[in-house]
Amino acid sequence: MKLWRARPVSPEANARKAITGLDRKRLVEESIPVPVEIAAQWAWRILAVTAVLVVFGVLVWELRAIAIPFMLAMLVSALLAPFKSFLIAHHWPRWLAVVVALVLGVVIIVGLIYVVVVEVRHGLPHLEKQTVEAYANFRSFLEQPPFNITKSQYTTYVSNIAAAINRTGAFTSGASTVAKTAGDVLTGTLLTIFATVFLVLDGGRIWGWVVRLFPRRARVAMVGAGAVGWRTLTIFIRVQLLVAAIDAVVIGVGAVILGLPLAIPIAIIVFLAAFVPVVGAVVSGAFAVLVALVFDGPWTALIMLIIVLGVHILEGNFLHPFITGSAIRVHPLAVVFAVAAGTFVAKIPGALFAVPLVAVVNAMVLYLASGDWRDRLRPGGLGSGSPGSGGTGSGSPGERERRQ
Fold first, then answer.
1. Residue 381 CB: number of other CB atoms within 10 A?
2. What is the phi/psi pair of residue 258, to 5°?
3. Which of 275, 308, 313 is nearest to 292 (CA)?
4. Residue 167: exposure state from Cβ atoms within 10 A (0-12, 13-18, ≥19)
5. What is the pLDDT of residues 312-346, one digit of tens each?
């Protein structure tokens, strides 16, 4: 039997095969249209950025017990920081300006809550009397045709409904849910207060520490982008205050015209609830309509409902898209879709933080894309300091805050 052996391949044959492979690869690359190649290059970069954003979003949502209080503290700090800067500009000591700003914020919130409590206590006896009368009228309405429900039947129906609810365990689960929610709210409130104090007191140094996490060449750009983003956030908070004030004034005036007993608490509740999208509007509007229903009957409640719906239609279709959008330089369509997407992804927190997040990111990206930060790198520019002085090329964080 004859055994076949493979012939040794010469170096020249290997070279010819390598050349043929290179020609084939070059032929494949040349056969791909340039637009397709550009699209492919963009596609994998977009997928990489999207993957990073998704991972970051999942991480934030898993740590929402910490992330939400911190973001709330950012919003409150953006409201108080301009007042602190105003006091510092008028030669107040820095520590005193911080203390006054924080105390003023607490006094305003506590004062609004105090006015609500006082007004509710003042109008509650009359409201209780009206509630009892409304309940009696409702019972009398059910006893008349076409319902013809007797008192014994009514008592039986109420007992059956209470027993059915009790069997479902709604009260037990509701009590445990309320207890857990109360604990979460208390913890979140303490974290928000703690973070707000430090952000108002030393926000510049905190951002300086964040900037030092970036490569040295990117630090100057991030310093400018942070300043632009913070300015956009403060503008957004002022506009949100304006929108909330408009809602409160219109609904409060409507309650006064209708002669409702709790007009001032209704206006304050609407003002505070305007900062919590979706749920805030529903709860405050339902409270106003319920007071009108109990106090003066269904026709007054219907008028109050029309006022509430009109205010929220005005807010959703004009105030937020046009006033907010023009102030933060975001298109009204982007504002509407940002709120919708935030609500879909993260419910109430998503709706609350969607617009400020989009506004801040938009402002920072536009600043970075414009290249204005390159002026800081030129001799004599804002960033001409030595790189080793502060790590950001624009002086220490405290000096930057005093200049701003």
1. 15
2. -80, -10
3. 308
4. exposed
5. 777 767 776 667 666 677 776 777 788 778 878 87
